[in-house]
Amino acid sequence: MSGLGNLFSLEGRTALVTGGNSGLGLAMARALGLAGARLVLVARRLPELEQAAASLRAEALDAAVVPADLAAPDAADQVASGLAALGLAPDILVNAAGVNLRQPFAAVTAEAFDLHMALHLRAPFLLVQKLAPSMAAKGWGRVLNIASLQSYRAFPDSAPYGAGKGGITQLTRAMAEAWSRHGITCNAIAPGFFPTPLTAPVFADTERAARLAAQTCIGRNGRLEDLHGATVFLCSDAAAYITGQTLAVDGGFLAK
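Above: the chain sequence. Below: its structure as tokens.
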């Protein structure tokens, strides 16, 4: 590959994607694989992980799996053990695992609140803490977090989710401050509304989905392939001087 194509190639890189068994995580893993990266998918349920990996292998993409409970305090240790068993050290970490229980503010329990914080903030923090040193030793790494429209504005029945997604934008900056001098860029994508298991209740309401589409500048909700370009860009050499940033991939929802 020559010219600008080299900037976007991920040949020879290994990418670990949490929540890679479905939805945004699987779509982003696929994009990285199509750009040449070897993939490691991480999630709690092994059957779903294996199914997702099989779908990627059917496209001749290299995909392995590491089952881990990302809401657990020892999540990073679980992931590190799985990686050691595979003999792999990731160059790219995508923190895409998440949950949105969609409960009214008054109905949220302490346990539900803590689950959102564990998945959206603690797991990304601990994974970077565990995996960034090996990236730094090579002088090259990429961390890509998942923010949200709710990093910037509130939606009904999503207070803990919004709090976690507001936090991930600041955590992304903190990661960048700590690790970018070692060659590791740390950024986030804030997706608009995409059809995934997490947003199934939204898209099940066709009128609501249409209203959300009308709120965008482009006039439609997202398609999973709309994430491919931003994902590869932020995980490639093309974005070597971009760090601590959150890029909205939302069709102009926040702009309108």
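The first strand starts at residue 14 and ends at 18.
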